[in-house]
Amino acid sequence: MKRIVTIVLFICVGSTYAQEHKLNWLTDFDEAKQVSTQTDKPILMYFTGSDWCAPCKKLKADFFDSEEFIKKSESFVLLKVDLPRRSDIISQDQKRKNMLLMQKYNRRGSFPTLVGMNSEGKVLGDINGYDRAQKTDKHFTFLDEIIEKY
Fold first, then answer.
1. Alpha carbon separation from 52 to 68, 83, 112 (Å, rounded)
2. Domain assignments of the chain as residue spans, ordered by start
3. Which of 131, 117, 133, 120 is nearest to 79 (CA)?
4. Is the pLDDT of residue 14 over 80?
5. Burial of 59: CB neighbours in 10 Å, binned 0-12, 13-18, 19+
6. ∠ CA(87), CA(90), CA(140), 5° rounding?
7. Superfamily covering domain 22-149
């Protein structure tokens, strides 16, 4: 019996670990543009406040951690632009770079915000916020629109 419980527990922990590591979020804009050029995929830029933004946390759980997003993410170069309040999450240099990206691509300062763009940084579309009804339909439609425009 202990052996079965151990195996089941191992499988559950392993599948959670695997799911979290299926997404390759870059944090450097220049690297994302380079990868986008090499792979001929659009960039999906995600503005988040990982340690303070409640809608960002819900969007992560409901959208980014879903199997559907994990599959669709293969069509994108993923770029996370995190602006946390705690100073130990990202370096000061990264925070400065993220603030510059925010000034250019998220002027409203809305969190969460998704921006789709080409390899040159030309914006193809954006969507911001996450409603309390926790419906991700608009976000998946947005992804499809970006792929179509690209």
1. 26, 9, 11
2. 22-149
3. 117
4. no
5. buried
6. 120
7. Glutaredoxin (3.40.30.10)
CA distances from 109 to 53, 90, 103, 105, 135 (A): 12, 19, 8, 9, 22
Largest CA distance in the chain: 58
Convert the pLDDT of each residue in 27-65 to its tens digit: 999 999 999 999 999 999 999 999 999 999 999 999 999
Rounded to the nearest angstrom, the gap between the alpha carbon of residue 50 and the centroid of all alpha carbons in its chain is 11
What are 66-100's pLDDT values in tens digits? 999 999 999 999 999 999 999 999 999 999 999 99
Q: Which helix (H) or strand (E) segment is 25 a member of?
A: strand 25-26
What is the residue type of 37?
T
Rounded CA-CA distance 118/121 in Å is 5
